[in-house]
Specification:
2 domains, eight-stranded mixed β-sheet, alpha/beta, D-Maltodextrin-Binding Protein, domain 2
Length: 435
């Protein structure tokens, strides 16, 4: 996922971008005395090696050796993959596909990947995934070019110590009751800022993007129509999310921080904001920023508007290039790595929330809690959020479109542009990308 993998890449800083030259290449995967080497071309931290799944698979299949190449950031990774897709060669046996790029693969490179929908067990495969996750990697004519790894259902994380200082409730059920809608969330923000006892300098929310990014995905339409064409100005998701986020920015509810920047990272430790939109992978990011000292500070409430629709941010797939030397063996590996049993193991080991609805319904997931996040029932919270996600089309430009709106909202928050001016700026930036 573009953002979540970027976040996890911090944990893989030792992986040099020099790997870029080889990460997408298949390398030497020829047979040697009956042995087959399967190469994995990935980005960020997928977590399979760390969770011991490669070792487990090789124990089950002694004839298989798995070799993994990783590029820290998904952007350079995908640029290299695009070059190899254009050449029709040089890809790994298995390639990771991120949410920001999967639509481009679906629209322009589907023939380069194995169609999992054409497999004999396709119906059984599809039935294990959330319908929206399967659809995001499927073409309009029914080809499915990858199987889902993790998902990013969203909730709202909050600093319960800051809420207590401001005279707000801290129990998750009571906090969720404060904001059944986004208008209620903004009203709570006004109450927070008006409190004479809140921590000096503390904003209600980190960034306008913590409103825009989740709210836009709750619309009937986000950035694209059913054919994958950008429809920003006609999108109910965009119009609603922009109105809410620009209000939050204009009313001073935000800490005026650009997400994933150095100042934003530092702000976790100094109490600069009380709430943040919280996809499941954000828990690991918060933990990495605060360390042991942050245990018990945060808790998790329901995302505003979830009674109407849930929201997701991030997620990835594994695809098998059809030009590979060991296509059948690679397909078997991908099906095993993304099977419900393995997705449960990934959640338990690393907190990667399953894209498999079957895995999400397992006791190990539904009963999971987070001691770090004040005992929050994370399996239940994110499972309920995932169940509420709408099936909406995505386009090859979704990442660039969201970045344009995020950057424009930053200028509203710092007062350099009015909401109308910033919206026009975003549209101009989007036009340059989409044509």
């Amino acid at each position: 996922m573009l953002v979540s993998r970027r976040a996890r890449a911090a944990a893989a800083a030792a992986v040099s971008l020099a790997l870029l030259t080889s990460a997408c290449g298949g390398g030497d995967s020829g047979d040697d005395d009956g042995q087959i080497t399967l190469t994995m071309g990935l980005y960020g931290t997928f977590g399979y090696e760390e969770a011991g799944l490669y070792e487990e698979y090789m124990d089950l299949h002694p004839e298989i050796t798995i070799e993994q190449s990783v590029v820290a950031q998904s952007g350079p990774y995908y640029q290299a993959l695009q070059t190899r897709l254009a050449a029709g060669s040089g890809m790994a046996d298995v390639q990771g596909l991120e949410i920001g790029f999967v639509s481009d693969v679906v629209e322009n490179h589907a023939d380069a990947f194995v169609d999992f929908a054409a497999e004999d067990d396709a119906a059984d495969l599809e039935s294990t995934f959330y319908d929206w996750k399967w659809d995001q990697a499927s073409t309009t004519d029914g080809r499915t070019i990858g199987l889902g790894t993790d998902a990013g259902p969203q909730a709202m994380c909050y600093r319960q110590d800051l809420f207590a200082e401001a005279g707000l409730p801290t129990d998750p059920a009571a906090v969720s009751a404060l904001w059944p809608t986004w208008d209620d969330y903004l009203a709570t923000g006004e109450q927070y800022l008006a409190s004479p006892t809140r921590q000096d300098g503390s904003a209600f929310v980190d960034s306008p993007n913590s409103v825009f990014a989740p709210a836009v995905r709750q619309g009937e339409v986000t950035y694209a129509d059913e054919d994958g064409n950008p429809v920003v100005e006609d999108s109910d998701g965009v119009q609603t999310a922009w109105g809410l986020a620009s209000q939050a920015a204009g009313d001073g509810l935000t800490a005026e921080l650009a997400q994933f920047g150095d100042e934003w990272n530092a702000a976790f430790a100094n109490g600069a904001f009380a709430t943040i939109a919280c996809p499941s992978w954000m828990l690991d990011y918060i933990t990495s920023q605060l360390g042991d000292e942050g245990a018990g500070l945060w808790n998790i409430a329901t995302l505003p508007g979830q009674s109407e629709a849930g929201s997701t941010w991030g997620g990835s797939w594994l695809g098998v290039p059809s030009s590979g030397e060991h296509v059948e063996e690679a397909k078997q590996l991908v099906e095993w790595l993304t099977a419900p049993e393995q997705q449960v193991k990934m959640f338990v080991a690393s907190g990667f929330f399953p894209s498999s609805s079957v895995a999400a319904e397992s006791p190990e997931v539904t009963g999971a809690t987070s001691e770090y996040f004040s005992g929050a029932p994370i399996g239940e919270i994110f499972g309920t959020a995932a169940d509420a996600v709408r099936r909406t089309p995505i386009s090859p430009y979704d990442t660039q479109i969201q970045d344009a709106f995020s950057q424009a909202l930053t200028t509203v928050a710092d007062g350099s542009r009015s909401p109308d001016q910033a919206y026009d700026d975003a549209l101009a930036a989007i036009e340059q990308v989409t044509g």
